[in-house]
């Protein structure tokens, strides 16, 4: 099992909220990592327990080879990820928007882990389903090169709808806040520092 899939919990978790942060970028270091660390610092300052999964350091095949027709054995890191999701009360997803949507590594993570019987369960042959991850909330910290207004009104925010509605919402996870940090490419150091402070403030209010 990779270090990325280990819990990293403190021995005494206390009464704080159980938070799992999932860094959905293949990069080893990035603005997403810095935002995630700032959020975690803010959350821990309020006594919450924050664990992290860094998808770029985990060992798993992101391709669901046969869809749902056949069972694909879960790698140890994905089994551990499912355990961490069950442990968590609140999830934090930190990722960039690429080509209008979430990175392939993050999409593959959902394909492989948010499986029938874990994230949802259809009722017999009907179109109704049970949302098996209900009771959890989520914050999304999203970086983009596209200005937020353009992404929303011109592109229709496809990546945001995919995350909040067709993945998390479908599984019963209620998105509480979606914070955009954009546009990244022309941003100044001063702007990025303000984003880090904003991410920390979001963690304080976790």
Polypeptide structure, described:
With 206 residues, the protein is an alpha/beta fold. The protein has one domain (3-204): 3-Layer(aba) Sandwich (Rossmann fold). The chain is built from 6 helices and 7 strands. The protein has helices spanning 31-45, 76-87, 104-113, 148-153, 158-171, 189-204; strands at residues 18-23, 49-54, 90-96, 120-122, 129-131, 137-143, 174-181. The strands form 2 sheets. Strands 2-1-3-6-7 form a 5-stranded parallel beta sheet, with helices on both faces. α1 (31-45) runs parallel beside α6. The longest helix has 16 residues, at 189-204. Mean pLDDT is 93; it is low at 6-12. It holds the Pfam family Flavodoxin_2. Keywords: Oxidoreductase. It comes from Pseudomonas spirodelae.
């Amino acid at each position: 099992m990779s270090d990325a899939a280990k819990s990293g919990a403190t021995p005494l978790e206390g009464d704080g909220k159980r938070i799992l942060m999932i860094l959905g970028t293949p990069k080893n270091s990035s603005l997403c990592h810095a935002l995630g660390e700032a959020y975690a610092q803010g959350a821990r300052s309020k006594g919450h327990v924050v664990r992290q999964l860094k998808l770029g350091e985990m060992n798993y095949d992101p391709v669901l080879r046969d869809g749902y027709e056949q069972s694909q054995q879960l790698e140890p890191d994905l089994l551990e990820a499912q355990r961490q999701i069950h442990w968590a009360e609140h999830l934090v997803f930190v990722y960039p928007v690429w080509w209008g949507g979430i990175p392939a590594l993050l999409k593959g993570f959902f394909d492989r882990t948010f499986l029938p019987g874990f994230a949802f369960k259809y009722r017999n042959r009907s179109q109704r389903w049970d949302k098996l991850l209900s009771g959890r909330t989520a914050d999304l910290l999203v970086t983009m090169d596209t200005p937020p207004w353009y992404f929303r009104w011109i592109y229709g925010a496809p990546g945001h709808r995919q995350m909040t509605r067709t993945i998390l919402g479908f599984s019963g996870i209620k998105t509480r806040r979606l914070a955009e940090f954009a546009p990244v490419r022309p941003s100044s150091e001063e702007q990025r520092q303000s984003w880090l402070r904003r991410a920390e403030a979001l963690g304080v209010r976790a």
